[in-house]
TrEMBL record:
UniProt protein name: Protein arginine methyltransferase NDUFAF7
InterPro entries associated with the record: NDUFAF7, NDUFAF7_sf, SAM-dependent_MTases_sf
PANTHER family the record matches: PROTEIN ARGININE METHYLTRANSFERASE NDUFAF7 HOMOLOG, MITOCHONDRIAL (PTHR12049:SF5), PROTEIN ARGININE METHYLTRANSFERASE NDUFAF7, MITOCHONDRIAL (PTHR12049)
Family stated for the protein in its record: Belongs to the NDUFAF7 family.
Catalytic reactions on record: L-arginyl-[protein] + 2 S-adenosyl-L-methionine = N(omega),N(omega)'-dimethyl-L-arginyl-[protein] + 2 S-adenosyl-L-homocysteine + 2 H(+)
Record keywords, A-Z: Methyltransferase, Mitochondrion, Transferase
Basic and acidic residues bias spans: 37-51
UniProt subcellular location: Mitochondrion
Function: Arginine methyltransferase involved in the assembly or stability of mitochondrial NADH:ubiquinone oxidoreductase complex (complex I).
Region ranges (Disordered): 33-60
This enzyme's EC code(s): 2.1.1.320
Length: 497
């Protein structure tokens, strides 16, 4: 049984007093300016000591593990697609890092999003107008969050529950209304009355965003509502089941049922050509797209691609090869062409002469820092170009994240244990129990999207977008502070123009 085993591991981890970054109540989807300020005011405890079980999820060395080289040569190469039908985590195999991450997050039997995630619901919308300030909103949020989990524990206690939320839930219905305001305005400007308003949403969670959008359109513009169709694309069978039973029941109660259909399929398996103009919503999904890891020879600048080896005991080891697979090689080619002239973060940005001097130092590393490249995101752009040629993308995600592992564009890898966040230092972790989320370099992403789809885009900050499209008075506290605008300073929005 893996649950008692994981519980034992975490209990031993927490025999030492955890550091403040491990005990932060803030969850994966919330990085507010207020929350971070509150953390800075808390007294810090002593540094966390190494756990005797830390090696169960963390690689022991940054060098090539020579004693595993024979196994690396002998073990078969597998992909995340080949592992979909497996009920147990694989052993005695090797795979590219993107396949390891994809399998960890989305495997139907043990993946993080398939089995572990619970989405927080705040209950009634927050009454911002009657809250004194942003600090009181934060306190009310914490109270509701704790109350929600208390009710879950009363039904079934789970010390490893993975509970998180989205801004859609936190700022319901105002967040969804802002998105709907943007959709209706652009639909009427470009497509009405010749085309229907066709909306696709990838990763709809509880379906709250969809319901808020449909409610707004019906109230604000009944004529547009009559032409509206909404399609949900959901990779998680568990969430798709929730949506089918609860979301459609709610849609029927609200009169939206005939507007909605749900497709339980990965967007990467999509094979239906959609010729109609449509809006494609991808809100906070890029951060969980699988990435490849690349390191470079600091002298020759030759890239090397990372793979994960899983031995017979289930331990993880990282290897690098000069033979890039076609997907990673294509990403580097497209990026070089699309981003020519644009400076972006890269492990080799240090001048060559400094790298040469550094390489002569004792114990100098023979490879650069790791760089995580969003190869799945590139694949997503391919799907949009091939199957949704007349789409307009609306996407929001984090451009920076705290507590990331070492590397360029590196992910945050974390889990929850007894309501405390536990960040670790490598994505090579027990599959399915850790969230692995990446920041998005919107400058690079914008250029690659344009190169692949041929469409023009605009990138704004989260605050700029919602200042323009939200009814900001609805989320303003009595002293004039506005959490909708201030709580996501590390998020950006990109739209197709």
């Amino acid at each position: 049984m893996e649950s008692p085993l994981l519980s034992q591991l975490f209990k031993q981890l927490f025999t030492h007093r955890p550091c403040s970054s491990c005990t932060r109540h803030t969850t994966r989807r919330l990085y507010s300016s207020y929350g971070k300020a509150a953390e800075r005011r808390r007294p810090r405890g002593p540094e966390k000591e190494s756990s005797p079980l830390e090696s169960n999820w963390q690689q022991r060395t940054d060098h090539f593990p020579r004693d595993k080289l024979d196994e690396y040569k002998r073990f078969p190469v597998v992909t995340s697609d080949a592992l979909r039908s497996r009920k147990e985590r694989p052993r005695r195999v090797r795979m590219l890092m993107r396949d390891f991450i994809e399998d960890s997050l989305y495997n139907p039997s043990y993946g993080y999003f398939s089995k572990q995630v619970v989405i927080w619901r705040p209950g009634e919308p927050f009454d911002f107008a009657n809250l004194p300030d942003e600090a009181s909103f934060y306190a009310e949020y914490q109270r509701r969050y704790t109350e929600f989990e208390d009710l879950l524990d009363a039904k079934e206690y789970n010390e490893t529950r993975q509970l998180w939320h989205t801004p859609t839930e936190l700022f319901r219905p105002y967040y969804g209304e802002a998105i709907a305001h943007y959709l209706v305005a652009n639909y009427k400007l470009q497509l009405y009355p010749y085309e229907d308003l066709l909306i696709y949403e990838m990763g709809a969670g509880n379906g709250t965003l969809m319901m808020n959008i449909l409610d707004y359109i019906r109230e604000a513009d009944p004529e547009v509502y009559a032409r509206t169709r909404f399609r949900v694309i959901e990779v998680s069978s568990a969430l798709a089941s929730i949506q089918q039973h609860q979301l459609l029941r709610s849609a029927e109660a609200k009169g939206h049922a005939d507007k909605v259909s749900i497709v339980n399929r990965s967007i990467f398996d999509w094979d239906t050509y959609v010729s109609s103009p449509c809006f494609f919503l991808a809100m906070e999904v890029f951060d969980n797209f699988a990435h490849d890891v690349i390191r470079y020879d600091p002298l020759t600048e030759e890239p090397m691609q990372g793979s994960a080896l899983i031995d017979a005991e289930g331990e993880f080891y990282e290897f690098y090869s000069k033979d890039l697979d076609p997907v990673a090689a294509r990403y580097l080619r497209v990026r070089d062409a699309a981003c020519a002239g644009r400076p972006y973060n890269h492990p080799l940005r240090q001048p060559r002469i400094l790298r040469n001097l550094r390489s002569k130092l004792p114990l100098a590393p023979n490879l650069s820092r790791p760089e995580y490249i969003p190869t799945r995101l590139m694949h997503f752009f391919d799907v949009l170009r091939e199957y949704f040629p007349n789409h307009k993308l609306v996407t929001s995600d984090f451009h920076s994240l705290p507590d990331a592992v070492e590397g360029v564009n590196a992910p945050v890898v974390q889990t929850r244990y007894e309501r405390r966040m536990v960040p670790v230092t490598t994505p090579l972790v027990h599959q399915g129990f850790f969230d692995i989320l990446f920041p998005t370099d919107f400058g690079v992403m914008e250029d690659m999207y344009r190169a692949i789809t041929g469409k023009l885009t605009r990138v704004t900050t989260h605050e700029e977008f919602f200042k323009r499209w939200a009814y900001v008075e609805d989320t303003q506290t009595r002293n004039g502070e506005n959490p909708l605008l201030s709580w996501y300073k590390n998020a950006s929005v990109m739209i197709t123009v």
